[in-house]
Amino acid sequence: MLAKSLLSSVSLALILTAATAEARECKPLHMDMGPPAQPAQYHAERVAIHTWERHVLELHGRDFADWEKAESKKITCEKSGEYHQCWIEGRPCR
């Protein structure tokens, strides 16, 4: 009886996971970059993410403009002199 109940719970969890994955919608990869004026890499990354979110908001709307929900995320930063600049790419998803 316990095994049957456990199997039912596992089956339900798999069905709910599959339904959630199917409901997820993503847009094409979006690339952006922040300005080359940040003294710390952390700040350069935050500015690049903010820029990406702002541009995705303009292109696809609020539902897609969340970096945390994006797929295929990549941030590349470079230091030139005393400043950092970051390039960012990700597929906006909701």
Low-confidence stretches: 6-19
Q: Quickly give the structural class.
A: alpha+beta
Give the helix level as a range of percent. 40-55%
Helices and strands, in order, run as: HEHEE
Number of DSSP helices? 2
Overall strand count: 3
Can you summarize the main beta sheet? Answer: 3 strands, antiparallel
CA radius of gyration is 19 Å
Query: In percent terms, what proportion of residues is strand?
Result: 15-25%
**Overall body shape:** elongated
The largest beta-sheet arranges its strands as 1-3-2
The span between the termini is 39 Å
**Mean pLDDT across every amino acid position:** 85
Describe the structure.
This protein is an alpha+beta fold. It has 2 helices and 3 strands; from the N terminus they run H-E-H-E-E. The relative contact order is 0.23. About 15% of the residues have low confidence.
Summary keywords:
94 residues; elongated; alpha+beta; 3-stranded antiparallel sheet; single chain; 2 helices
